[in-house]
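chain below, 184 aa
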Amino acid sequence: MAVSPPVCDFDAPWHEFALPATDGKIYRLADIQGKNGTLIMFICNHCPYVQSIIDRIVRDAEVMKRAGIGVVAISSNDVVSYPQDGPEEMKAFAAKHGFGFPYLHDETQQTARDYGAECTPDFFGYNSDGKLQYRGRFDSSKRTAGPEDARPELLEAMLQIATTGKGPQDQIPSMGCSIKWKNT
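prediction:
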């Protein structure tokens, strides 16, 4: 079932975290924060919405990094029910797709809860002051990739944030698979 998160809550603050990555390191917000903005994205390995755009995400993340935007991906799915989203599988997924950014495992799911993440992919674009400016979709892709020339909405928004500190007022929410919460 597809889930669509709420629209951007402009100026909402980001949240601290300390999570292990596929490279064996622990990353905190300060480790990935960019001088011109920061993109925090919640993804996972098995979601067809993520799989349809992962190569575009990797491509656009390189452009963002050159613009002084920090980029990180976080997987928060319950790995007991979805073992394909576990740490070893995350490491293989990141290597296969050539991630140039940290891929973090949120085992407790607390970071996803802190951010209010609802689906994969779910994008949170912050300005240099740590204020939310974008919570929209990547582009017009859905379970399958949109056209190659689809408007790069996330990239455009993040570059705007990097130069002006403000995100676009009109944003189309992301759509994806629900985060697989643990049974508590």
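The longest strand covers residues 69-75. The domain at 2-178 is CATH 3.40.30.10 (Glutaredoxin).
thats it, cya
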